[in-house]
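Recall the central idea of this unit: under ordinary conditions, the amino acid sequence of a chain determines the structure it adopts. In this exercise we apply that idea directly, starting from the sequence alone.
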Amino acid sequence: MLNEISHYARLTLGIGQYLRTPPHVDPETVIRRQLHYRASLFLDTARRVIFARPGNPYFEMFRLADCSYADLEQAVAKDGMEKTLAVLHRHGIYLTHDEFKEKGPIVRSGRCIPARRSSFLNPLVSGKIVSRSSGSRGKGTVSPLSTQLRLYREAQTRLRLKELGLERRTHVEVKPILPSMTGLGSCLWAKRLGHKVDRWFTVGGSLQSSGHYRWATRFMVLASNVMGGGVPAPRYLPPNDFSPVAEWIARRRIQGDPCFVSAFTSPAVRIAAAAVEKGFDIRGTVFLVAGEALTEAKRCAIEKSGAKVFNSYPISEMGLMGHACSKMTAGSRVHLFKDSLAVINYRKKAPLTDAEVDSFLCTTLLPFSSYVLINAEADDCGSIEPATCDCLFSRVGFTEQLRDIGSYGKLTGQGMTLVGTDIVKILEEAMPAQLGGAPGDYQLVEHEGAAQTQVTLRVSPRVGILSTDKAKECFLKEIRKYFGGALAARMWSHADGFQAVIAEPFSTITGKIVPLHLLREPHSASAGSAGSGAIEGRHET
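Accordingly, the structure predicted from this sequence is:
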C-alpha cells in the first residue's frame, strides 16, 4: 500500500510538471533536427552512458568485442548507423528479449555479464511519470518518462494527426485504466494539443479484481483535472459489449462531429462489428489501432462499417517504432520512425515455434529515451524496405517502412503483451502439477477469430479432466502472477477472447509440440517476412 501511495504521488507530481511545460512550437523542425543528428546523438549517448560507466552491461560487451569508443565512432562515420549495428551484432553486442526481461543470463564469449533490467535505464534522465507495459500485480518493466521525452512524443503525435487529417475530429479513447498509462496518457496529450478527448471508454473488470485500480484511476483523473488536464472520467463497458462505443460514435456523426477512435486492434474490430450488427452509422470514422497486428481480416471487418483504419507500432520500453500514413490502406505497414530508433533485421529461429523469422533489432537514438539499448530484440519480426509513398512522413525523412509485422515469442492478443517464457512455465510446470498430465499436454494458441484475436488453451485428452472450466480457471489464476497477466485476464474475460478446449495440441510440420502456438494468416507467409509461421499454421489446421 505504501508503495502504491508513493507511486501515485510521484505520478501526480510528474503530470503537474508535464502540464506546466509548453509543447514544441514547431514539431516538424524538432523531428527533422533529430533525424539529421541521429548518429552523433547516438554516439554521444554511448560515450556518456556506456563507455564512461564500466558497470553498464554493454561496456563489457564492447570490451569482449575489442571495440573502443574510437572504433565505434570511426565505424559510424565510415559505414553509417545500420551497417555498424549489424557488425556489432555479429560481435556479440546485442540484447535478447529474455535477457532484458531477466529471464536468462547474458553470456558473451563464455563470460556471464551481470545485469538487471534497471542496468539499461538511461542515467541522464529521470521522470516521475512511468509507463508499464500492460500492468499486473507481478514484477514488470517500468519505464520512467521524462518531460522531455513526453514533449518529443507530442511532436510525433502532432505529425501523425496532421498526416491523417485528424486535428479537427472528435477524439474517442478505448483504452485501459491504471496501472496502464495508455488511457490516461492519451487524454493528457490530447488536451495539450488542442482537442480534448470526448469520451474515454474502458474495460474495468470486477470490483473484486480491479477495484483498487478503479479508485486509483478516479484519483488520478481528479488530480489531473485540478492541474488543467481535461481528462474525462472513464466509462466502463458492460461485459463483452462494445456497442456503447459504436452508439456514441454514431450519435456524434449525426451531430456533424466525425470521430477518430484510438484503441487496441481487437476492440476496434468489436466496435465496428457492433455498429454493423445494431445498425449504428459510423461511416467516415477513423480508427487508430495498436498493440497487435492489423491483419487483413481485422482491416476488412473495420472497413465493413464504413470506417477507415491506420495502425501504429509502439514498444513500451523503446517508444514509437512506426505509424501508417494516409496512403497505407492495405496490408500491415508502417513508416519506420528513424528519429527514435535504428532498426535492422537478422534471420533466426523463433524460440517457441518451429519457424525462422526476420527478427527486429532495435537501438534507441533519443538522448532522453527511458532506456539505452543497442540491438535489442522485441521478439517481433517483419521486413524492412523503402517507403515509396508521397506523404508527410516521407517528406520529413521517414523513407523506410516495416511490413508484415508479427510477434514470435509472446502473445499480443487484445493489445496485451505476455512473455512467452512466462507462459511456458505455466503450461509445463504449474498446470501439470495442479491438474495432471505432463509437458506437451497443454498448449496456448493465438489465432484470428471471426471478430477479434482469440486465445485458446488446448488440453490433451490424456490429462483426463472432464470440464474445461477447471483448466481455464487454473490458467487465469496462474497468469495473474506474471507481469501483464492481471490486465490480460481482465481484457480477455470482458471480450470473451479466451477459451479452453479438450483437444490434442497442434504439432509442427516436423512433429514438435510447442507450448506457445501463433497461427498467422496465410496471406502473410513469405520468405523473410513475419508470416513465415503461416505455412505451419495452414498444415496444422
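The first helix runs from residue 2 to 20.
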